[in-house]
Amino acid sequence: MNLMQFMVSIVLFSVLGFGIGFILNMILKTTWFPVVIGVGIVVGALVYQQIVPGIWDALILGCGMAGTVASGMTIQTLRKKGYRMF
């Protein structure tokens, strides 16, 4: 994997994690459930497929999880500020 692919992957996984987590938070009205789902999917896929991720893959997956956590924090902040939609 070259450096450009790595950088694009980090941005892509972070934005995907944030977007999917934000949508799930709005639909399910929970704050941290998408984080639990995301960790479960990643761990389940790695264990089921018996994949040992390299350092680059782990960094990319970690950035996806960081995006999911950021969506939970964003929803929590919006709820505290009084937005009833969230």
UniProtKB/TrEMBL annotation:
Superkingdom: Bacteria
Chain ranges passing through the membrane: 6-24, 31-48, 54-75
Keywords: Membrane, Transmembrane, Transmembrane helix
Pfam families referenced in this protein's UniProt entry, alphabetically: YuiB
InterPro entries given in the database record: YuiB
Name of the protein in its database record: Membrane protein YuiB
Organism from which the protein derives: Brevibacillus formosus
